[in-house]
Amino acid sequence: MAPAVADALLPTRSFDVACRRVLEYLQQTVPLGGWAVTRVVDDRQILLTAVGTGYDLPPGTSLPFTESMCHTMIEGTTPRIAPDVREVPQYAEMAAAAPIDISAYVGTPIVSGDGRLFGTVCGYDPSPQPAALRDQLPLLDLLSGLLSAVLDADLSATAASRELERARREAETDALTGLLNRRGWDRFVEQEEDRFRRFGDTAGVVVLDLDNLKTVNDVQGHDAGDEYIRRAATALAATVRRDDVLARLGGDEFGIIAVGAAPEEAAELVGRAEKALAGAGVSGSFGHAPYSIVTGFPGAWKAADDAMYEQKRRRRAGLSRTPS
């Protein structure tokens, strides 16, 4: 089996890979100045991928579909294979107005599973071709049918992947604050732990426990308590950096992974967050600790949590000593 044939038959569910393989096979089997796969969108014909040396048409090239040979081919008013476009009046007229030199044309539709037109497989050459070019129609039908099958598989897989990602985001988003929730936090830690260990990346882990939430709930009601949490989340979100990970871990507890932050940078982040919370009328106790490849994120979290409770203990002790 020729290499191009073997490559064309390799299993794939990726439409772009299948297009490239089919075009390379066609170029080897039926050499023309250029073979292309196009997409038809809003009366525009967009070139997705192409092979051949006869034309300089980069991917993304967009042309009016109604002025193309593929348009009349799809309508069935012109043949799918024209070894010499001069023999087909409509093709001859279009060739005369085309921005490229076309003397031979081959085209066939690519349709989705519901029968809608997706695009075309088409070939062009600046010189007329032998009449035997018409004998390639069964091959063209076979390959376009294969592309249609791969297209459906890829569209279905992409739709399923998007739905899964949407469901995952919803499952990992805290409904009250819009931040990452505990599940999302745990998944990040699980996925990133190995990478941080492997490369020895730096990070700081910050723990925040809000003060006075129970009092707000008891005195003002749970709606006020929810608003208290939302104000805290908004203040924190405005404080963290772009690559940091911020989550509401449940109740009045928040966590931050300051990616790439040295201990002093994590301390500065905590300072900014304290000021932001104060500006939002919220208070809380912070603790932070550096990530270590020895103890990992669990060890950094425990150290930060211990530091947070120590701060909370000191604050409570200070308040208890304040004269009445």
Automatic annotation (TrEMBL):
One of its GO terms (molecular function) is diguanylate cyclase activity. Coiled coil: none annotated. It holds the Pfam family GAF. Residues 201-324 form the GGDEF domain. Transmembrane segments: none annotated. PROSITE patterns: GGDEF. It comes from the Bacteria. PANTHER family: DIGUANYLATE CYCLASE DGCM-RELATED, REGULATORY COMPONENTS OF SENSORY TRANSDUCTION SYSTEM. This is GGDEF domain-containing protein. It comes from Pseudonocardia halophobica.
